[in-house]
Specification:
- The protein contains eleven helices and 13 strands.
- The chain has a seven-stranded mixed β-sheet, sandwiched between helices. Strands 1-2-3-4-5-6 form a six-stranded antiparallel β-sheet.
- Strand 12 and strand 13 form a beta hairpin.
C-alpha cells in the first residue's frame, strides 16, 4: 500500500509498514508493526485512522499519533475514571471532556450513583469511527441512556457552567492543536467553577519522563485553585516510556478517605483497592520533580 494511503507517521521497512511515535528531544522512538489499515479519513479537526497492529490489536490513531489500543487502552480508561469516581462520595453528575474513544464513559457508567454523564467531544467523527471499528473499547449496542453526547468545544462548554458537576474528567490528547487550551489556567479556573462545592476533577498530565514541564505546570496551576491536588501514576505500555501521570484536584481535603470501599472493581482489569493507594505513592524522581 502506498504511503499516501496510510498518512503521516508511517514508515516502510523490509518487513512491512510501521507507525512511529518519536520524542525528538530525547532521541527516543516507539513503533508498532501495522498489519492493515482499517479506516482513514480527514474530519474537520484531524486525521482519523484505525489500524490493526501486530501485537496490540486495533488502535485509534489521530494525526499520526496512537491514542489507544485494544491491548492496553483499558488501563488508561480505568485509571482516569475509577480514581475520581471512587474518591467522590456521590458522583451523581459527571462531565467528560474529550474521550472520543468512549472508553472512559463506559467505565463511568459502572457506578450506580452516576445519574448523568455529559461527554463533550469536539469531533463527532472520532466517536462514530470508534463505535464502528473499536467496539471492544467503545462498547457495542446502544449507549447507556445516562450518557449525553455533546459535540462541541469542551473549553467553551465548561465556561458556561457553574456548580453543576460532582466530577469532571479531562480526557484530552497531548497539549497541541485544539487540546492545548485544556492544559491552561483559564480552562482549569472554569472547571473549578463548574464543579459543586465538594467536586473533584482529574486530568491526564502526560509522562513524567518525557513531559516533566507539562506535569509540573498542570500541578502547579491546579494548586492555585484547589486545596488538595495529588498526582498518581499508571503503567501503560502504548504511551512513550510506559509511565503515565494523572493529576486529581479536589475542592475538599483528603479525597482519598474511604476510596477503597467505594471502588467498583469487580470487573476491572487494572484497578483494585491496592492500586488505588499505591498509585499515589510516587517514586523519588517524580517527588523531586513536583517539589515534594
Amino acid at each position: 500500500m502506498e504511503k499516501e494511503q496510510y498518512g503521516q507517521g508511517y514508515v516502510r521497512r523490509e518487513d512491512g509498514w510501521w507507525l512511529s511515535d518519536t520524542e525528538e528531544e530525547y532521541g527516543f522512538q516507539v513503533q508498532w508493526k501495522v498489519k492493515s489499515l482499517l479506516h482513514r479519513e480527514k474530519s474537520d479537526f484531524q486525521e482519523i485512522s484505525v489500524i490493526e497492529t501486530e501485537g496490540f490489536g486495533r488502535a485509534l490513531v489521530l494525526d499520526g499519533i496512537v491514542q489507544t489500543t485494544e491491548r492496553d487502552g483499558w488501563i488508561y480508561n480505568e485509571m482516569i475514571t475509577h480514581i475520581p469516581l471512587a474518591a467522590h462520595p456521590n458522583p451523581s453528575a459527571v462531565c467528560i471532556i474529550g474521550g472520543g474513544d468512549c472508553g472512559a464513559v463506559r467505565e463511568t457508567v459502572k457506578y450506580p450513583a452516576v445519574k448523568r454523564v455529559d461527554m463533550v467531544e469536539i469531533d463527532p467523527r472520532v466517536v462514530s469511527v470508534c463505535r464502528s471499528f473499536l467496539p471492544s473499547i467503545a462498547g457495542e449496542g446502544e449507549p447507556d441512556p445516562r450518557i449525553r453526547f455533546l459535540y462541541e468545544d469542551g473549553a467553551a462548554f465548561v465556561k458556561e457552567k457553574k456548580g453543576e458537576y460532582d466530577v469532571i474528567i479531562v480526557d484530552s490528547s497531548d497539549p497541541v492543536g485544539p487540546a492545548k487550551v485544556l492544559f491552561e489556567e483559564p480552562f482549569y479556573r472554569d472547571v473549578h467553577r463548574a464543579l459543586k462545592d465538594d467536586g473533584i476533577m482529574v486530568c491526564q498530565s502526560e509522562s513524567p519522563v518525557f513531559h516533566p514541564r507539562v506535569l509540573t505546570k498542570v500541578r502547579d496551576t491546579l494548586k492555585t485553585l484547589f486545596p488538595d491536588v495529588r498526582t498518581y501514576l499508571a503503567t501503560i505500555p502504548t504511551y512513550p516510556g510506559g509511565i503515565w501521570s494523572f493529576t486529581l484536584a479536589s475542592k475538599r481535603t483528603d479525597p482519598l478517605d474511604g476510596i477503597e470501599e467505594r471502588l467498583r472493581d469487580k470487573d476491572t482489569r487494572y484497578v483494585n483497592r491496592d492500586i488505588v493507594r499505591s498509585s499515589f505513592r510516587l517514586p523519588n524522581y517524580v517527588r523531586e520533580l513536583l517539589g515534594e
